TrEMBL record:
Keywords: 2Fe-2S, Iron, Iron-sulfur, Metal-binding, Nitrate assimilation, Oxidoreductase. This is Nitrite reductase (NADH) small subunit. The keyword Iron-sulfur applies. GO terms for biological process: nitrate assimilation. It comes from the Bacteria. GO terms for molecular function: 2 iron, 2 sulfur cluster binding; metal ion binding; monooxygenase activity; nitrite reductase [NAD(P)H] activity; oxidoreductase activity, acting on paired donors, with incorporation or reduction of molecular oxygen. The keyword Lyase does not apply.
Amino acid sequence: MAASTLTPGPANAPAADTRWLAVCPAERLVPERGAAVLLPDGTQAAVFRTHDGALYAVDNRDPFSGAQVMARGIVGDRAGEPTVASPMHKQVFSLRTGACLDSPGTGLRVFEVSEAESTIRLAAPAPVGGGAAR
């Protein structure tokens, strides 16, 4: 089962055909700090809880350096847009859309994220070959 970009944005009500991957206990997410999680396909995601309690998940791989460091980025906002700044070269990315606010045309994958039963979950795509996972 591979992870991929899904609906950008903070925690949403899950779609009926979404399969969820439990990635960490909710208490492990400290507001304004990220947590790196290893996905079944070997890629990584960076999961964040902002000061207002919103959840976001983006690719952990910095597209400029190639390093798996976005979970160690600086969480903030730009004109009300929740952001994370890469700890490598300080480019700023929207946590909602993954777009790099400093270099248009570059971005991070964004994962749908939710919290249920004290567990942080990321959405996974339907299995290869079509059909929805239930």
